[in-house]
Each structure stands twice: as structure tokens, then as C-alpha cells.
Amino acid sequence: MKGQILLISGPSGSGKSTLLNRLLKEETDLYFSISSTTRAIRDGEKEGVNYHYISEEEFKKGIEEDSFLEWAYVHKNYYGTSLKPVLKALNEGKIAVFDIDVQGFHIARKKFGELITSVFITTHSQNELKRRLEGRGTDSAQTIEHRLTNALDEMEHILEYDYFFINDDLEESYKNLQSILRVIRLKSNSINLRETINNWREF
Ligand code: ADP
Ligand code: 5GP
What we know:
The chain is an alpha/beta fold. It has eight helices and nine strands. The strands form two sheets. Strands 2-7-1-8-9 form a five-stranded parallel beta sheet, with helices on both faces. A four-stranded mixed beta sheet has the order 4-3-6-5.
């Protein structure tokens, strides 16, 4: 497999989707891994773009059939990464992008090890996270409380990630993400060694 994985985690509301949406628009060769979820679709989201929205029954069938590379129960809903399309992208030498939680990161890391470059993104404070979740206007007060509690648990895992930054200034954060992508592109494990040497010998 010549491809690589850019894996992003961080508290819900820290700005992962905002940053990734821009990155995916500008870097068109990336493959975004569209997760399946049992959570309800939000205003502004689209089936097959943000997620595949499926029933709990379908999700459990997917688990039984081993069709998930990893899955987790997050914020009272199931979320999972489909294995097949990711393997296809990696075999084609693409960079696959995952937006998954800490539990998913642990499983993915066991399966794909070196292929993963991991990034943890958060806000400068819990209050700012709350403001963003409220400002986004997609979740009930109870869901927001649940997501804030979860955020604290997730923060305990920051040191396990390759990179970490606070998403305060959106432009700065975007530049950080671009830099990480640049480094991934420079990693030698994505080159075809024979082809590189043959090209080098020709001239
Ligand atoms: P996540 O995907 O991590 O759950 P979102 O990308 O949906 O988070 O962002 C949550 C909210 O915060 C959105 O309303 C988004 O517009 C806003 N947001 C994202 N980044 C910033 C930032 N750097 N400063 C202020 N607001 C931001
Ligand atoms: P949201 O409901 O805000 O879109 O996502 C909630 C959380 O689920 C986020 O932390 C997000 O990274 C995580 N998530 C999304 N898709 C997956 C997935 O396929 N697997 C895992 N483990 N987590 C996911």
C-alpha cells in the first residue's frame, strides 16, 4: 500500500469539519473517508458527503459483517469507518483523511501504524468550546453538555498524537494543517522506489 492516512481528532465543536472542508476543497487528490453514523442528519449536511446516515440495525449488520475498519459508540451514537473504500484509496497511493474520535484512533493505529499521521485539534478553553457548540446551533443543551464532558476525556490523549494545535485563528490553523499535509507528502514511504531509481538512471 503506497497511500497514507491523515487522521484528525479533537472535541466536537473544535473546528475539525470547518478546517477539513476547506482542505478537501483545495487539495482535490485527497480521499475523505465518509463515516457511517446512526446520529440524525444536521441542517446543512448531506448524505454521502458528511456521513452515510444509517439505522442502528444496519450499523450492527455492518459490525457483524466486519465491514468497518473501526467503529465506536460516541455521544450516544454509533460511528464507523468503512474498510473497503479506504483500502482502495491506499492501494491507489492516495492520502486518506479520517475525522474520528480517540477510540477510533487507537484501533486505526493498531491496524495501520506507520501509515498514520495523527493530529489533535482543540480550542483554548472549555468555555470557547461551549460557545462554538452553542453557536453552531445543531445540538440540544443536553447533547452539548454530553459533548463537553466527552471533550475532557479526549483531551487526556493529546500526547498520543503526532501533532497538536489550538484552533483559535482559523487562518493560522489552516496553515498548520497545510504544513502537516506537506510533510506527509514528503514522507518516503509513499514513493515507488523502483520507478524513482529507474527515472533517476535515465538522465
Ligand atoms: P467539529 O467538526 O470539530 O465538530 P465544526 O467545524 O463544526 O467543529 O465547528 C464548530 C463551530 O465552530 C462552527 O460553528 C464553526 O463555524 C466554528 N469555528 C470553527 N473554527 C473556528 C475558529 N477558529 N474560531 C471561531 N469559530 C470557529
Ligand atoms: P459529530 O457528531 O460531531 O459529527 O462527530 C462526533 C464525533 O464522532 C467526533 O469526535 C468525530 O471525530 C467522531 N467520528 C466521526 N466519524 C467517526 C468514525 O467513523 N469513527 C469514530 N471512531 N469516530 C468518528
